[in-house]
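debug: dumping io for the single-chain case to check the tokenizer round-trip. Nothing else runs in this session.
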Amino acid sequence: MKRDELLAALEAARAKLDAALAGMGPEELTAPGPVGDWSVKDLLAHVTGWDVDLLTNLGKVKRGQKPGRTKWDSAGIQAQNEAWHAELKDRPLERVLADYDGVHQQLLRVVQGLSDAELEAPADWLQGRPLFKYFVDHVVTHEVEHAAELAEWRHQSK
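debug: decoded output
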């Protein structure tokens, strides 16, 4: 996947998630419901947490350091989700929304700074997967999944 294609996919996924959030006020954003006892705010903190994880790993690799975990199984994902939820559930809505927007802008800037060759080359630290696939799996697919989940929840709540 070329850089421009990845940027378009990142923007399209975020647009779907933003569309699912459209018109929601603070009460709806902070009420439990869309994912078990998680609020929409919790879900946005969760999405942002995975984006930060990706950016952190990229930064470590760029500095010649060993990245954190890049391959996850279901149990590991669940444990990480629970840890981040416990850490972020009391974060104020305004901060979660600012992080959600700001981290996404960082992701876009990072991708804009990468070449097609860097995105498409197999990466040892990603078990031979190309870097673009890390973005697609960690961000694009994740945001589209949660956008559909939120849209369905809102539809059922009417």
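debug: round-trip ok. The two ends are 39 Å apart (CA to CA).
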